[in-house]
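Hi support team,

I'm opening this ticket because the web form for multi-chain structure prediction keeps timing out on my end. I have pasted the exact lines I submitted so you can reproduce it. The total is 438 residues across two entries, so I didn't expect it to be a heavy job. Is there a limit I'm missing, or should I split the entries? Thanks in advance, R.K.
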Amino acid sequence: MALLDFIHRLLGLQKPSATTAKERLQLVLAHDRSDLNPELLEQMRREILEVVQKYVEIDIDGGDVSLATEDRVTALVANLPIRRAKIGPAQQRPSPPEDTSSPSAARESSSAEHPSEAPTADPTPVDALDAASPAPSEGPPDHGEDTSSAKDHEEAAIQGNT
Amino acid sequence: MTPVTSAPARIILICSGKGGVGKTTLTANLGIALAKLGERTTVLDADFGLRNLDLLLGLENRIVYTAQDVLSETCRLEQALVKHKQQPNLSLLPAGNPRMLEWLTPEDMQKIVKLIAAQADYVLIDCPAGVEQGFKNAAMASQEAIVITTPEISAVRDADRVIGLLNTMNVAPVQLVLNRVRPKMVANQDMLAVESVTDILALPLLGLVVEDEQVIVATNRGEPLTLNGSATAAGKAYHNIAKRLRGEDVPLIDPSKERKGLRARLMNKLRQSGLF
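Hello R.K., no limit was hit. The queue was backed up. Here is the completed structure from your submission:
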């Protein structure tokens, strides 16, 4: 090991070359094994983001879709930080029309079902998303922009043994 | 002629994808080691364009016929097999000579391997580098495989490609030999660690061979390290691989323990003491 390398490593400026080698290998093998070229992967990434954006507002810049590989199984790993859930007419669950006319107290919690009452983001479902993922902050749940730190991992094994 | 025993021969492909990582050296040493253990072993050099197994075994001057001559019935198999003088349990058969322009067909390869297997306990096929026809022919004639690689990214990547192909060709089991490990560089994190390679390739480790200058000396002489005891680090490793192949439980060497220097031992002690 050259002296300069040694000093760099000592100062934490440079990773050991074995670590770099392992990372590079894992990346190149993930691509080799799946036969997906970067162009195709980019196209898939865009389309996945489009679909996800229909349902939740995501942080595009923080999003990452990549291939990971373990035990000769290659997985498509999408890491998409969710800003907030999109609750709008496009996303309502199919509900029978007579529900709107029934004045039931039990229905209060599902106000999001009414397109007129919840045209944009409703905090309630965002909380539900937060609860599902590891708690992003310790304080009382803030609604709005703070929920952007909640991250969801979507993993889909796209290939078995190659 | 010796009577044919009932147990079928194990037909093992030795391959790597990348050239120069130690396929032929492993084949020669493993062949000698198995022969010493009393196994009737035939090594088949499937690479006839660039055949070298004869050189490593010191048999280059004794080759008269090749597998092709057996197939064309120019000679009988017994005439084509070159017996090793010191280890008569070992014989070599070259697939062809360098003047041949075309590969043998997969059918030819299967036919010749079947013939050899009828009078052997082990058939080791030294596979040509690459993943093209030569590799495919050899793989199609094999039952199981040993993939050999070094801790370098190019070799590991090529090994991965070969493993993928072997899986689709139903060659199993596939085991790994990690060759030319430099313990000092691994300790300095300047060489891929053994676990990194086995994790990435997801294969059981059959053996670990440390970098050993004596391999070059042995090649110069045409006398594989396993021929003369197991005094060298690499020779010992090849012997252990032969034993594990036969099902013996031989613990893997710890590359860090191979450093015999006083300073290294002291450093190990210090590390174990947990002070650092």
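A quick check on our side: Residues 95-162 of chain A have pLDDT under 50 and may be disordered. Let us know if the file doesn't open in your viewer.
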